[in-house]
């Protein structure tokens, strides 16, 4: 995470506490999905005395600010990831295998929604459930 980015945030009046910064850096370094517990386990090594409740509170805050994305994957489990690359998930109902698809694949569909209903979809992160190639026809 470069300093310009952090400076921008501060200029917007965004309070970057050490806890929030640690969470953002952990998610950025990981690049994928982490559960709140996994984030806590890494963050507490950098910030001794940190509590799980604090991590949960800050994750909620960062999600409200659009800095991180929250998603429900698999068995309704909540995971977080750094915001920035818009993508969606395809998750297999049977084996739980997941893959990512680029947001651009949905652009036409979203445009059609808009033409038909006037509704502007702004969700950069959607999970679709179905059957992966290996589980089809079982
Ligand atoms: Zn995701
Ligand atoms: Zn499967």
In words, what does this structure look like?
This protein folds into 2 domains: 3-82, Arc Repressor Mutant, subunit A; 87-132, Dna Ligase, domain 1, CATH 3.30.1490.190. It is globular and about 50 Å long. It is α+β, with helices and mostly antiparallel strands. The protein has 5 helices and 5 strands; from the N terminus they run H-H-H-H-E-E-E-E-H-E. Helix 3 crosses helix 4 (52-64). The model has no long low-confidence stretch (mean pLDDT 87). 41% of the residues lie in helices and 20% in strands. The strands form 2 sheets. Strands 4-3-5 form a 3-stranded mixed sheet, with no helix packed on it. The protein has a two-stranded antiparallel sheet with strand order 1-2. The N and C termini lie far apart (45 Å). The structure holds zinc ion (2 copies). Residues 33, 71, 81, 87, 89, 125 line the site of one zinc ion.
Task: Name the descriptors.
single chain; 138 residues; alpha+beta; Arc Repressor Mutant, subunit A; Dna Ligase, domain 1; 2 domains; three-stranded mixed β-sheet; 5 helices; 20% strand; binds zinc ion
What is the helical fraction, as a range of percent?
40-55%
User: How would you state the average pLDDT, rounded?
Assistant: 87
Helix/sheet category: alpha+beta
The biggest beta sheet reads: 3 strands, mixed
Rg, alpha carbons: 17 Å
């Amino acid at each position: 995470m470069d300093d310009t980015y952090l400076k921008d945030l501060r200029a917007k009046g965004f309070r970057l506490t050490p806890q929030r910064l640690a969470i953002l850096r952990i998610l950025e370094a990981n690049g994928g999905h982490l559960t709140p517990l996994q984030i806590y386990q890494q963050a507490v090594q950098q910030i001794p005395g940190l509590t799980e409740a604090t991590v949960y509170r800050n994750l909620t805050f960062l999600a409200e600010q659009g800095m991180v994305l929250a998603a429900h994957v698999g068995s309704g489990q909540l995971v977080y990831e750094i915001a920035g690359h818009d993508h969606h998930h395809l998750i297999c109902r049977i084996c739980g295998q997941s893959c990512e698809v680029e947001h651009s694949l949905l652009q036409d569909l979203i445009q059609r929604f808009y033409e038909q209903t006037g509704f502007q979809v702004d969700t950069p992160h959607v999970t679709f459930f179905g059957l992966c190639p290996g589980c089809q026809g079982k």
